[in-house]
Structure formats: structure tokens, C-alpha cells
Amino acid sequence: MIHANSWKKSINYAYRPKNNKNKPSMRISTVICLKPIPYIVCYMVSAILLFVALPSNAAQIVTPKQTVILVAPNDNDPIQSQWLYGVSAPESPLTVGLGLRIHYNAKALKLLDTQALIGSGVQPFGVPQADLNDWDNDPETDTFLVVAWLDFAGQWPNLNNLPSALFQQLFQVEQGFQQSTRINLTASSTAGDALFSTQSQLVCRKPMVSLQPMENARVFEGESITLTVQLDQALPLACGDMIVDYTLLMDAQQDEQYKVNTINTPNNTQKLIIPAGQQSARLTLQIAENQTVEPDSTMILQLQANAYTQLSEKSPSSQIITLRNNDSAISLQASVLSLSEAQPHPIVVTLKRTGYLGKALDVPFSLGGSATQHQDYIVSQLHGRVSFVAEQAEAQFNLTAIDDTLVEGGEAITLSVLENNAYQLIKPSQITLSLNDNDEVCFDLDGNGQVDALTDGITLARYLLGLRGEVMVLHSLAPENLRRDNATAITAFIETQLPSGCYDIDGNQRNDALTDGILLLRYLSDYQDEALTQHALGKQAKRIDAPTINQYLQQQLAPLN
Fold first, then answer.
1. 20 to 30 Å CA-CA from 525: which of 179, 288, 321, 437?
2. Alpha carbon separation from 540 to 338, 481, 515, 537, 544 (Å, rounded)
3. How, if at all, do strands 338-340 and 280-287 pair?
4. 241: which DSSP letter?
5. Strands (E) located in 199-279
6. 8 A C-beta contact, residue 245 and residue 306
């Protein structure tokens, strides 16, 4: 507030704390000017006293909008260096101005333009000049430029909201710029005894990024591969972390077969961080495991330029990686699908392995069906397991029939490869083999596959009565499908079966027409209960009732059913 009377001029300056309208203003200074003193001189003296408008604990603060700027050395686009102005709270933001020196290295940066973003009170810009006094205590900067703002009324910067953009400059990177350079500020003048606070702006050269080449880069599913991503030089710590972008190029089918998980990257994204001050970092790719047999394939890891890095022109920025399948598939086949007691030649069973052959593999199998191992057949692989050595595609074992004297009829052997996480099953993984019995039912005398009362029953009874020759088979041969169609062949067959005791139906160790012969005829004629055995059991018979006789004959005739 200015008061004037007829003999003196009085100029008063007052300070009211920010955001506290209830607190009375504090008078900072009063200048009394006598009439003989020109008013303009008095006013200039008062302006000098304006520099006490900020209390001693206040600070004027100028900081860069970006503390670090990354720039490619061959980039022709200018870089923008913008600075913000503020004051330390809770002091008043209003003052009389500020004078700054902007320091930079003219060998690294060429100044193109300076622009004040707070136009209130801005003064003409100085011209770049040599920093002979090293005002910023930085020997690498060699040039400075003065910019200043001045407000006689003490209302600078005349803004309600701080911090606010103060000024900006455009620089061009000079040829040969290799690493980093700083833009520093010093105060050529502050408001009274106010403190000045600032922070350097660092201009860093964008590093060249590349991959350390790997020969024969191969990885199996379920395993990982590590690549080294490197910069052409390590930047100062202040330049911060370098973020490297990359892509994994894979076709659609491959993306379904191989799932690639990146390790050492934030949130599993396709970015890699090279920590501040370091020149390299490792990128690990984890290939997911599956149980699918697929051919080997490839993927390409490709680095990408971004705001932090540029691709090297001299070193590789991509790597071809071969994805190796490590899954095997097993199938089964046999040389023939039947074996016989009459021909004790083994069947050769082959297990075929496809897919990955580079490791040893054990394949278990099971045997089932109506035939019984060690009783009806034997297997060369006693432990139920076939072993492959590395690079072996086929493995074999044998099944051989046992020629016994039991009448069993046709039986089956079911051979199955068991499931296992080490391989995949493909068809056929199970086969059924037929086992043919060469032992005939002793009661089928004519060999037609049937036992009838009026053919086989009558013929056996006649034989046990002592009849031989054509009379033994008179009117008792089946009409068709005979393997034995005369008395000589049938007599020879009966006599080969007698040692087995199969004709001793009542179990008394004798073959008798009027006991065993009658029991067979009655059984084949569907006699039941007591009618089956009445007057037909021999002395010392062990099978003495219808149920035991029925059970014995059913067992003997079962192979024909």
C-alpha cells in the first residue's frame, strides 16, 4: 500500500501468509522518499527491498519435468527440456521474480530454442556464454544461458496453482554423443534470501540392444533355455533401468502345442528389465510339458525397439530356437494273431516307438484273456516290461503255446500296453491272440465236433463190448464233417484216449460198456436224476449220483460248447 502527502512519499510492502486471510498482513519495509528525490529513483530503491518478500525459510524450486531423457544419437528430432516452478509450502507463492543460469555441454547438445512458459515478468534471454566460473560445479558443462523474470509489484508468477511449467528448451544432439550429459540450473538471483532448490536433468543416449548369439539353440518341452540380452555399453546409474521389449513368433498350431512361459520378466509380460548401471540381463524361456507327440518346430525371439532402447545394427536382435519334442508314442503289433499247441512256433510281438527316441524307455504290458500264462503259453519277457535303449524304435518279445494234454478248446490271449506318463498310446495298443487247442474231446469219436448218443455213444459202447471192425461203426457214423469215418481210425483214436481215463465215467478205474457206456448213452439222451445212474454204476465207483456224473461229463464236453 502506498501513502503520499505533500512533503514525502511513503511506499509500504506487506506480506500476508498464503491460505490464511484472517492473519493480519506483516509490514516488511517502508521507504520514505522526500520530494526533492525523483519518484522513479525512490521506486527502484523499493524494488531492491522487494527481495525480502519471501521469509527466510521459503525456497524457490525449479525441477525438470523429466529427470531422464533418452535419445538416439542419430535421431534428428529435437529433444524437449521442460522445467517446472514451485515454492516450498506453506509459504506464499508470490514474489518478485527469479534469475536462472542454464548450464549444458555444448559439445553434446546444440541449443535450438528457448521459450518462457510463464510469460509474466519474463526478461530478454541472454546469449549462450562460456561457463568460465563453473557456477554449477560440473566440469562437463561448458556453456550457460541466463533467463530471468521480474515483477516490481511482487505478484510473480501471478498463478494460483503451482508447480507450473516455467520454461522449455529445444536441443539437438551433437554427432559423437556417446553416453550421457546433464542440464543443470543455478540461480543468478532469488527473491531476497529465499533458498533455491533444483535437480539436474540427465540426457542419456539410447543404448543399442542385441542378443548374445547362441549356436544350435535347442530346448526340449518341460525344460528352459536362457538367452543373454545385452547393451552396447553400460549407462550411468542415474539413467535408470532399461526396459527391453521382445516378441515370440510362433505359428498357430505351435502355440497350441507349446506353451512358452517367460521368467525374469514383470508379470510374465514380454518385457525384460536390465537394471540401472548394468550392461546385460538374462531372459529365460520355460517350455511347458505336454503328452502330445508332435514334430520338432521353431520359434523366433525378436527384440523390439522402444522408448528405452534401439536395435543394434552390428549384432543380432533375433534368435531362432528349435523346440524339441520329447514325447514318445507306443503301438503294438504281432507277426500273426493266432498260435497253436500243435505248432509250437512263437509269435513275435513288436512294440513300435515313434516321436522322440533320444532316451531309454521302459514300457509295461499286461496279459489277460481265457488262456493262462505258464499253463497255456509262456512269454519271453518274464517281468511284463519291454525296454528300449536310446534311439531304438522297435522292441520285441515272443509268445509260445504249451502243448499240453488237456482238452481246453479254443482260448484267447489279450495283450495290452499299459498307460504311462512317459509315452502316449496310439492304436493299436491292445491285441487279442487266439490259442488253438490240439487236444480233442475223447467222446467225439468220429471228430465231427459233436457228441451224439446214436453215433459216438453207440460206437463207444460197442468198442467197450469188444466189437471191432465195421460192425463197431455199423449205422453209427455221423452223416457229414467226419474227421474219422471208418472203424480203423476210430479204434486208433479210442486207444490213444484210453490212458487219460476219460471213458471211466463212474471213476472206478475201469472202462465198462454196461456202466460207463450206458451212463454216456443216458446222459446224451437227457436222462436225469436217478434214471441216469440206475443199474449203471460199477463196483467201487467214485461218482455215484446224477449230479457228480453230470458235472464230470459237462467238463469233458465243455470245449465243444
1. 437
2. 44, 39, 12, 9, 9
3. unpaired
4. P
5. 201-205, 208-211, 218-220, 224-231, 242-249, 260-263, 271-274
6. yes
Q: pLDDT tens for residues 109-150?
A: 999 999 999 999 999 999 999 999 999 999 999 999 999 999
Q: Which DSSP string do the residues of 262-284 spell out, in sequence order?
A: EESSGGG-SEEEE-TT-SEEEEE
What are the residues whose beta carbons fall under 8 Å from the beta carbon of 69, sequence distance 6 or more? 79, 81, 201, 202, 203, 204
- Tally Cβ neighbours within 10 Å of residue 170: 15
Task: Using the CB atoms, write b or e for 207-240: b if 16+ within 10 Å.
Answer: bbbbbeeeeebebbbeeebebebbbbebbeeebb
Q: Vertex 202, ends 196 and 203: CA angle to 5°? A: 140
Global pTM? 0.59
Which pLDDT tens digit goes with each residue over 438-496?
A: 667 889 898 888 899 999 999 999 999 999 999 999 999 988 888 889 999 999 989 98
Alpha-carbon gap, residue 428 to 332, rounded angstroms: 6
Determine the 3-state secondary structure of 497 from DSSP: helix
Structural domains in the chain?
Answer: 2-52 (no CATH), 59-205 (2.60.40.680), 208-324 (2.60.40.2030), 328-436 (2.60.40.2030), 453-560 (no CATH)
